[in-house]
Give the backbone structure.
Amino acid sequence: MEQTVKSTLKLNYKRTFLIGFAFFGILLLWQVYDSWCPTLLTELFKEAFNTTKEEEVQYLVGVVMAMDNLIALILLPIFGALSDKTNTKIGKRMPYILVGTFVCAIAFPFIPVFFHLNNLAGVIIMMAIVVLFMMMYRNPAVALMPDLTPKPLRSKANGIINIMGYIGGAFATVVGIIFVLSTYLKGDGSNAIPPWSTSNIWILETPFLLASVLMVFSAVVLFICINENKVKEEIADDIKLGEALSETADKIDDDKPMTKANKMMLIFILIAEFFWFMADNGIGTFMGNFTQYYLQAASSSNMINIIVGGVGSVLGFGLGGMIAGKIGRKWTVIGGLGLTLLSYFVWIIGTFTFLKGAAASGSFPIIIYVIWLFKGFGMSLVHLNSFPMVVELCNAKKIGSFTGYYYASSMAAQTITPIALGAFLNSDRIDWGFLPVYAAVCVAIAFAIFMFVKNVKVNKQNIVKGLEAFGEEVEL
C-alpha cells in the first residue's frame, strides 16, 4: 500500500534577511567603486597625458576597469569550486567571506589616498587588491543563499537579498551626494579643488571609509547570526524536498553527468546573461562621465539617477518572485528584458531629438530618471530569476561552482564591454550619445537568445498560493 507523505516548504524570511547582509556589503562597495573609479582614472590619465579632453583617455579607463573584471573572471569560478570543497567549523562559505571582507575593508580607502597623491599606479594597484579579495568574498557570499534555501523558494529569497544589496548601494549613493559630489566636482566638468590636493582628502575619502566600515559590520552580523553548519542540518529535509520541485528540463542526479537538455538550458542562460551584462555594465561604467562631460551636469545628478533606478529595482525584487510564480521564470526574464529594451529605445529617440539640446546645457533631463526607473524594474526581474535558474541545474555539492559560472559570464562581459565601449567613444564619429544604442543592441541579442531557454512549468497543484508577499508554501 502506497503511503502519502505531506510536507511543507516555507521561506524563512528572518534567515534570508540576515543572509542578505552579505549582499548589502557587496553592492555598497561596488556602488562607491563604480561611481568614483572611472572619474578618478579619467582625471589621472588626463594629467599623465597632459590633455584636457576626457574622450581621449576613455579607452584607457575602459582597459583598467576591464582588467579588474578579468581578475574576477578568473577567480570567481576558482573560489566557488574551492568553497564547495571546504569544510570548517564555521562552514564552507564563511571563511572566504570573512577574509575577503576584512582585506577589502583595509585596502579600499587607499584608492582615494593615492588619487590625492596623484599616483596613478597606486590607484590601479589598490583597485586590483580590492577586486581580488572581493572575488574571494563575493562567490561564497552569493552561494550562501541557495545553500540554505530550497529550490522552489530561491527566486523570492533572491529578491530579499537583492533588496538588501540595493539598500547598501543606495546608502553609498546618498553619502556620495551629501558629502562629496555636490561640493567636490562642478557641473561644468572641471574640479572645484585640485583632485590630488591633500588638504581636501577627507571630502573624497568619506564614502570609501564608510563603505569599509559597513562592509565589516555586515560580515560581523552575518557571522554572528548565521551558523552555516547548524542551519544546513536543520533544513536538510527541506533541501531534499525542494529537489523534487526543481525547474529543470531533466531531474538532477548527484551520481550522473549533467543531461544534454540541462546543459543547453545552462548555455543559453549564460550566453544571454553575457549580453545583458554587456549593456548593463557598459552603461554603469560610463554614465557618470556621460553626466559630467556630455550633459555638463552636476555629478550628483547621476547619483540621484542611480537611486531612482534602485527604487525601480527594489520594486522588481519585491514583485518578481510572485510574477515568476504566475508565469514562470523564463517569461519573467523575457518580460524584464523587453521592458529594459523599450527604455533604451526611448533614450535613443530622445538622444537624437529632444535630449540633444540638453547636451552641454548643464541640466540633467527628467526623462532619464523615468528611463532609469523602468530599466531598474526590468533588469531586477532578469537578475532575480536568472541566478536561481542557473543554480537550479546543479546539486547541493556544486552550488559554488555554478555560482562561479553565473558570475564568470557576467565578469566576461564586464571585462570586454568597458574596452569595447571605450574604443567606440574614442572614435571621431561617435560621441556620448552612442551609449543607449550600444546598450539596446546588447539587450536585443540577450532577448533573442533567452527565447531558446526551455520553459519549465511548475506543478501548480503542488504550490499553495495565497498571500505570497508574506510567505510561500509548497505541499506534496
Observations:
- Strands lie at 8-10, 463-464, 473-475.
- The CA atoms of residues 31 and 169 lie 5 Å apart.
- The first helix runs from residue 13 to 48.
